[in-house]
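Dear all,

This email documents one entry for the complex benchmark we are building for the journal club exercise. For each entry we list the sequence lines for every component of the assembly. Then comes the predicted three-dimensional structure of the complex as a token string, followed by one or two observations. Please use this as the template for your own entries, and keep the labels exactly as they appear.
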Amino acid sequence: MCRDGRRRLIRIVCAALVGILVTAASASAYSIVISNGRYAGQSGHAGVFAPRHSLNKVDVQRTSSYGEACENALNNNGTWAQQNSYCTYYGTAYVYHLFCACQLRYGWNGLAASETAVWMLGIEYY
Amino acid sequence: MSTSRNKTLTLLGLTLLCVFGLAYATGSEAPSAEPKVTASLDRFEAFRSPAAGELPSQLRDFAAAPDMQQRFGLDVSAIRRIDGVGGKAWYLLPGTDSLCFYDGAGGGCTSLEEALAGKLLVILRPPPTLDGSAPVSPASTRGVTNSDDVIIRGVVPAGVTSVRASGANGSSTTAAVSGGAYEISGSAIQSLAFVGPNTPAPVRLAP
């Protein structure tokens, strides 16, 4: 009886340890803030890059009440990873793009060409 | 006796580690609220059908990621697949009073209320043409392209059969809705109007 109880306890402990390891593994992704605050541009697009990583996602959230904030990523060779940037709309404040995490890229957040200023918070994940 | 006590202490230690570890993991990574599928989701045709079976691993990882759980409380088990524009697979991802969509590359998220009002959409714009080569990061940049050409991708509730976009110069274009999804392109688009037997009010793209 006592031995059975101990075995059951060992099984429970092992299952819990596996659970912790799985949780830790799934939470092991890294991220860096690309933009956070007010960004302004007089003409064309203004934007900001984050450091180069093997990205699996770039996102941006517009934190002001209106305005278009965009996300994209720049490949290591200087070409854009996305043919088009994904931009927020004042009803949809959060946009994202997924990447393969198979090559080095710079996450980018910027303003739509028509914008002069927007508050935004964007992150690159790798 | 001593060996038995050591084993007991070891088990006790591991148990405490598990308890604190799980408490830490739950406290730092779990969503702030339980995901729920509200009745309003039924207004999207996709939610009148069973959940998608197998999901692309990239999408599943994205939806289950801690940041998306914290932001929107996405319910991975309730994701629906729709035949989006051009027959391409799009996905609807319900969260806690929110809805996201994925067009095979990216997408957007908003509140369920906004989504029901036809405001779940993303605007695709050409990226700026950069001066010089790749940036030394982190660095600010200014583009030299100033294009008003846009592509709009979005998801609408059932009852919308097409979407009409009106431009600043009075031009308009219309795109059909497929599986609840649409894509429409144009220059300097100012507003979207929804066509069908049961439609949200027109949406302005500028305040």
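Observations: Helices of chain B lie at 2-29, 57-64, 66-72, 112-116. The two ends of chain B are 77 Å apart (CA to CA).
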